[in-house]
Amino acid sequence: MERDAHIRRLDHLLTNCFAHRGHAVLLEGPVAGGKTELLRTFAAKATEAGARFLGASCSAAERALPFGVVNQLFRGTVWPAEQSGRIDALLDSLRSGDFGDGSATGLPAPELVRACHELAAVVLGLAAEAPLLIGVDDLRDADVPSLEFLLHLVRRIGQARILLVLTDQTTPWPLNRRFRGELSRPPYAERLCVDPLTPSGSARLIADALGEETAREVGEAFLGASGGSPLLLHALVDDHRRHGEAPLAQGYGLALVSALQRAEPGLLQAARALAVLGPDATPAEIGRLMAGEAADTDRAGVALRALNAAGFLDGSRLRHPVAVTAVLDDLPSQERADLHRRAAHLLYDRGAGALEVARHLIEAGHTQVPWAETVLSEAAEHALLDDRPDLAVECLKPAHQAAADERSRSALRARLAQAEWQLSPSSAARHLSPLTAAVGAGHLGLSDGLVLIRQLLWHGRGEEAADVLGRLRARASSARPVNLAEAGALRDIEVWLAWTHPTLARGRRTPVLPADLRYGVVTPGTDPQLQAAASLSDALSRGRAQEAADHAEQVLRDLPLHRRSPWAEEAAMIAVRVLIQVDRLSAAASWCDRLLETTDARNATTTRAVLSAARADVAVHQGDLAAARRHARSALELLTPRSWGVAVGLPLSTLILAATRTGEHEEAARQLTHSVGDTMFQSRFGLQYLYARGHHFLATNHSHAALADFLSCGELLRDWGLDAAGLLPWRTNAAEAWLRLDNKDQARRLIHEQLARPGAGTSRTRGPALRLLAVAGPPGRRLPLLTEAIDLAEASGDRFEQVRVLAELSRAHRANNDKRRARLLLRQALHVANMCEMKPLAQELLSVSADLGGAESMADGLEGIASLTDSERRVASLAVLGYTNREIGVKLYITASTVEQHLTRVYRKLKIRRRKDLPADLWANLRKTG
């Protein structure tokens, strides 16, 4: 490809050769530029034309073998018997000859000159019988005696039928300067330059090999990775044929390395230095890395120009990451480590960034320098800022090893544990015992100690957490004067414990700040996310979630700004719980979704898992069971149950509850087989787990077991002093279990207790209580109670509760012989149940529909909706949502009179009389059509 001019020139010289006008040609160009392929192609043509081809390929390994190239030229050809003996005898004499040393005079020894003369005489004699094409590839690696023979031959080639074609790299440091000088002297010698392929030539090569369509797809990438080097292009094509993609190390990378190994050593050294230092390295730095401690800027600059000419570089960088990997992987491990070590020192002396220097220290395993700890520690901070906890871990491990004293080593271990926590809490657990010992020895600061408490509690190690907390309390109380920042942090941890792990905080809520300082004061020097977690925990513990709702949204809004805080995901979990508590479910879902999007580009597995679990919790409260299952499963896939520790109760409880409500009882039972440990039930996660398990037992007709779980929830809340906070409507759930056991008295007692509790006025607490009170009470009171309950269910956004209240309302209207209203309510309940995949409720509703006209009657409304025109359907859908005629007209750009006309036709087609009788299916239609 793109070698037509070269072939034409060689063809012309071959024609002259046949006419006794011999010539020598040097094909030179960058490494891997296609010189060898050009020589082979021309040799095949010359042989077909009647020339005898003598070929040799030089190797650096055979450079010390006298007349090695000459032996290849003659031994590789079958000669007639009368010539073969003479040639063999001459070659044998060359092998055993002593050709002296001409280095003192700069001229070859007389013995070598005589041997070359004899060889040339033989070759000239052979050329007299048949034209000869002599081809020598990679001339730079030829042995010195063979070079002297070739020079001897060039001087006598003018009247002989000999065409001598040699290939060599364009190199700034030629080993055979005298020989190349002779070739530069006309008239019987010339040089032809063989350059890499142009972009159009590269495209043609790819198209010929892979077809036009594939060439269009991969051509730009191939050209970018090869720089027009035929060797690299062929490697890319071969990779694509074998694997369907390129570049791959086994083809492209190996081809690059093999070419560099055959090139001048300076090129390989420069490529290695560039692979280590990266594209921002200066020629001086590359030269220093090539030459050890002494910089050789000129040599590096020449090598970089040669690599660019070969197409191996794009400016100052290797063309593909595979090239970087291949060049470095070719180095023995010790040499590679030494190269990185020297690079680290070079960059540190230059004042390069900590991350850049740390990368080389890590690669070299070199931390025994005074500045290693500082650089690695700073690099870890930068990595965490860049959301790279994995890189932070790589930096902190050697920094911890390089620490000068126990206090520094403990602080670095704490930071390492926090970085590993973001990737996998189970991996970070190996640091907990040494860190606990460090607290005992006084080597760990308060902020790290408080994080350690959370990590110990996460893994269910309550006794160790209590010991650490006791030591931190004692240290703070003995300090004089009082450190307000430390006292504030201890106050925050106490308040947080009262909500999350009450057994550890019970009886220990004495203030650690002076009495005139209120809890809401922000204490400088403490972690803002710990303060947020404590503030929100305090609101939940005191039943004041409503007052903290705006603060909870602010915490979630600011979470990306505090993502490096070890308390960030804890604050997020508690903030979401506050929003759930006050029925801001849409806001909670929206914040979780936004934050999950921000974690897509971050390597923060734990944060993403926690947010997924929180999002699942919100979804199950909304009655969006499919989303609840999806997010809960994602949380359990991101972190194993072992990594979740006692917090596994959060995603497990959500998954159990969602599976129960969708009728997947076997799935719920499987989740209940997970070993959760007794320590989980000393935390709020155990409370949620018991609540979900109770609902599973209730749905599977194990009412006594369900009652036991709900009563256990109440007992825990009372023991923890949190029953007054209204965190969990356990009395309502226990009342439902009593109803299943046909004990209405106990049920009514618990319901009345629930309704009398502080904070029982929230929609999600009061609504279910009123529904059960209607079921347990006299028929005459049912409709008023259920009417209020449905309003509360709609206000809370809990679709599961909506379906249950709608079903009870349908039963109540049926009992009053209002079958038409009962049917409409049942249809609405069935629609929501189907939409949210509440299979058990949907089946129950379908069975009830038999008393109201059966499935055909249920379908009547749907058929009526199908008869509506698009305009009528849009108007009716907005009417279902409660818009007035004027508001509907504004939205649809029609008059209020037109709206009234549409509604009149809708009533007639659906056989109803009033707007309030419009079926809920119309709302679903609006959702589908947008």
Your description of this structure?
There is one protein chain. This protein has 930 residues and is mostly helical. 68% of the residues lie in helices and 4% in strands. It contains 49 helices and seven strands. Strands 2-3-4-1-5 form a five-stranded parallel sheet, sandwiched between helices. Helix 12 crosses helix 14 (297-310) and helix 32 runs antiparallel to helix 34 (649-661). Residues 508-521, 854-860 and 924-930 have low confidence and may be disordered.
What is the overall shape? elongated
Q: Give the integer mean of the pLDDT values.
A: 86
Distance linking N and C termini: 59 Å
**What level of helicity do the residues show?**
55-70%
Oligomerization status of the protein chains: single chain
> How many helices in DSSP terms?
49
Radius of gyration: 42 Å
Amount of beta strand: under 5%
Describe the largest sheet. 5 strands, parallel
Poorly predicted runs of 5 or more residues? 508-521, 854-860, 924-930
Q: How are the strands ordered across the major sheet?
A: 2-3-4-1-5
The total of beta strands comes to: 7
Structural class: mainly alpha
